[in-house]
Fold this protein.
Amino acid sequence: MRFISFFLLAIFLIPTPFSYAQTATDIQNKINQNNSNIQSLEQEIAAYQAELDSISQQKSSLSSSIKALDITKKKLNADIAVTQNKIDKTNLTIQNLSSDIISKESSIKNNINSIALGIKNINELEQTSLIENILSEESFTVVWNDIEDISTVRESVRTDILKLRQVKGALEDTRNTTIDAKNQLTKLKSQLSDQQKIVAQNTLEKNNLLTQTKNNEANYQKLLKDRIAKRDVFEKEISDYEAQLQYVLDPSKLPQGRVLSWPLDKIYVTQLFGKTVDSKRLYTSGTHSGVDFRASVGTPVMSMADGIVMGTGDTDLTCYGGSFGKFVFIQYNNGLSSAFGHLSLIKVVEGQTIKRGEVVGYSGATGHVTGPHLHVSLYAPGAAKMGTLPSAGCTGRKYIMPLAPVTGYLNALDFLPPYTINTTILNNSTAE
């Protein structure tokens, strides 16, 4: 029975290094600090956003425009800090999980060695002359009990090893999940790097604005009036043009159900599709051709389904403040197509295949806007295509942008997940 006692000690008295416990505790403390930093930064971001929302309600002025650009820069820098803390936290979590896996692997190895020792002792016992021992009733009883005890211990150890392997497998799955999360956060960090580029663009815009207006409010209002006039001319010419296009909507060709996903992580509709109180005031046609979503400058904009990019561009290059500004036009595999307007940065190119949820650009305030937001136009199958339209407001230039007959426009909210008007929701729902 001596080797059985030794065998049990070898299995159950495997030491855990004290240094690892200290390391795990230290890592957890660092993770807790990251969580605290993230919470503090998110409160700071919320305060910046509230200030931006307040400015957007004010009458457009030079000072408010400059202030909005300055606050946006602060908000984006805070966003970057949040993401960096999340990346650091994920790295620490992976480090902790890796240490756990190493510890479990060591335990499994020790248990396998213990089984090997048990098998060796069993083999040594079987090498003795069992016939001689069986002749003695006392010896037979001792041998039988020894063999029975060894079999019981061996089966117990085998069960323990299976459990440890299951734990190891679970830890490896968790580590893989955490690595995936790290990759996602790295992607997010890349997105925020893009947002830094947007801040630089806005800073350039601020400098240009100051140069154009000579930091004078009267000059700013004159510039604003000129842009509104060009916008009105553009709206009329595109309305007249699209009214001439022929298209008969066939309801049977429309996909059934809510086949699209939200284009933003946080959803709040600010302007509905069609004829509304605001559309009569804001648009010469009296109708709104899409759905507008609240989105501060630099908010990631995602594809609403799998598809292909049919075109990108910037109408401001043709006539500043006239239309979509920077846009992405996507043809979805389900037959629908959409245009995202007023972007600050485009992340895709014409001909690129994209997946649902993939970032295609960042929201902004380019083109015809009264403040930063995302405009989404949705088109029936075959209704829209990239086209060329001469500019009446900016003589001698041509718009290259998505164009569709009036009858080809659809209400995006009919194909997106259910939404209650004037309610903020997080994008955690999937398309039906």
Observations:
- The chain has seven helices and 14 strands.
- Residues 137-213 form the longest helix (77 residues).
- Residues 216-426 form a domain with the Glucose Permease (Domain IIA) fold (CATH 2.70.70.10).
